[in-house]
Amino acid sequence: MSKQLNWGVIGAAGINGAVVPAIQASSRGRVVAIASRTLEKARAAADKFAIPTAYGSYEQLLTDESIDAVYIPLPNHLHREWTIRAAEAGKHVLCEKPLALNAQEAQEMVDACAKAGVHLAEAFMYRHQPRWERIKNVIASGEIGELRVMRGAFTFNMAADKGNVRFHADWGGGSLFDIGCYPVSTARFLLGNEPIAASAHALFSPEHDDVDMMLSGILEFPGDVSLTFDCGMWADFRNFFEVVGSDGRIEIPGTFIPNDDDADFVVYSGGQRRVDKEPAVNQYSLQADRFARAVWGEDVPLVPATDAVRNMRALDALLRSAREKTRVTFD
């Protein structure tokens, strides 16, 4: 049997329903403990996911010497504190996106983990779907010509749930941080470089603590390539990304949440349409396995921890642009 990474989960968030079973189903990990702010809530989550140990505080979980790594699905404003505390306790950290409330916080988290000698990763699970390597190869081959623009959207409607944690401004709420971070990350992931300017318009809703319920943005990249995207928590569900070149394009349906039965993408080139077949796999399980291999030095991280700092810089600029109604350039 392969060596197993023992995971602890800090928080009983809804996303655990996707992540915890995936870690349990991964080849290199198992969840051995979960903590909540009350023991009752922790025990309920432990029973639900068949986790052996429940703790009534996050601090107790961090003192458990059997735990190698922690998964942090807490609200955004708690990411910095508990990532740093986990690192100081010698635990490797997989933290939900966005990593922090701003780039400065993200850098502090990266520095703390580096100082403690632990692995830190931001939980962008979509990047672990194998189709992305093939998509990068199509782009690199020149099949769709020179890159011109990328276009994406990630929206859903949960505006009626006024008490949701996403609707607390001080907690890092809003659509850009919750789901707009995905197309921003995707563009940077595919291009392998950083934006030089950002512009955005947002619907800031007084009904939802003035968070951005909808946001449309443009990121300018070197070489006159751009990303145009929109994100929102007050619109019909959409989940797609498109890469447009001078001679063709790539459509990626179910970009961030692939279909249950496939993860196919479509290439248009030379007047022809080709479907590249990709199987449906559990990208959360692949994320957990890659994390474990990186911890043990068997593989390199898919991206360095500093990638999260750079993504936060882009998010910071977009949010500033939306609030100040101005184009923001990067140093």
From TrEMBL:
UniProt cross-references to Pfam families, sorted A to Z: GFO_IDH_MocA, GFO_IDH_MocA_C3
Please state the span of the N-terminal signal peptide per the UniProt entry.
Answer: none
The Gfo/Idh/MocA-like oxidoreductase N-terminal domain is annotated at: 5-121
Mind listing the UniProt keywords for this protein, alphabetically?
A: Oxidoreductase
What is the top-level taxon of the source organism?
Answer: Bacteria
Task: Tell me which residues make up the GFO/IDH/MocA-like oxidoreductase domain.
Answer: 133-251
- Matching PANTHER family, A to Z? OXIDOREDUCTASES (PTHR22604), TRANS-1,2-DIHYDROBENZENE-1,2-DIOL DEHYDROGENASE (PTHR22604:SF105)
Its family? Belongs to the Gfo/Idh/MocA family.
**What is the protein's name according to its record?**
Gfo/Idh/MocA family protein
Species per Swiss-Prot/TrEMBL record: Cohnella soli
